[in-house]
Design a protein that fits this description.
single chain, about 70 residues, mainly alpha, 2 helices, flat, binds zinc ion
Length: about 70
């Protein structure tokens, strides 16, 4: 059975004057994302997010009773 030839997807208008948010905005401060530190704008924001994430993990108490059935 012959494959139905479909035209390639039209390329995104990357050269258009797209708003910074199109390329990605830093979730910390909202500045345009820097490729080197994406999805953040800088290492500082990346560190901030990392620390938030770690703090969040540590802040969430893991209830051992949840895994009581998995005692091995
Ligand atoms: Zn930032």
């Amino acid at each position: 059975m012959p494959d139905d030839p479909k035209p390639p997807a039209p390329p995104a208008p990357a050269n258009d004057a797209a708003p910074p948010t199109a390329a990605g905005a830093c979730p910390i401060c909202g500045k345009p994302t820097e490729l080197k530190y994406r999805p953040f704008c800088s290492k500082r924001c990346a560190d901030i997010d990392l620390s938030r994430w770690l703090n969040g993990v540590y802040a969430v108490p893991v209830d051992p009773r949840d895994e009581e059935d998995e005692e091995v």
